[in-house]
């Protein structure tokens, strides 16, 4: 059963911006990519480094520790079926930003395949 947690207000994050939210000891990073909100766990699945300060290239976030890249929309690494960062459903409810915590989104096989192609990277930059 999912638990919805308010982490901000609608319009708080402009496109291209990000913010950290701390909920029950968990750190989550919110991104506004071209007007769409995305939420990922702040811990890199490689070695646990914080992802919040990573460089964003289109929809790909580069971990500041060792440089692995993750698609913030799917959590997947491009070009490989390797590690995945946990993503969370996020949306606007009654003018508030709400994250669903108890049901991390596991990418579908189709999403993983899409993220693994260079076309996906090009599309997210458009
Ligand atoms: S901890 Fe993120 S790439 Fe190593």
TrEMBL record:
It comes from the Bacteria. Pfam families: Rieske. The keyword Metal-binding applies. SUPFAM superfamilies: ISP domain (SSF50022). This is (2Fe-2S)-binding protein. The keyword Metal-binding applies. Residues 103-126 are annotated as: Disordered. Keywords: 2Fe-2S, Iron, Iron-sulfur, Metal-binding. It comes from Paraburkholderia monticola. InterPro entries: Rieske_2Fe-2S, Rieske_2Fe-2S_sf. Coiled coil: none annotated. One of its GO terms (molecular function) is metal ion binding. Residues 5-99 form the Rieske domain.
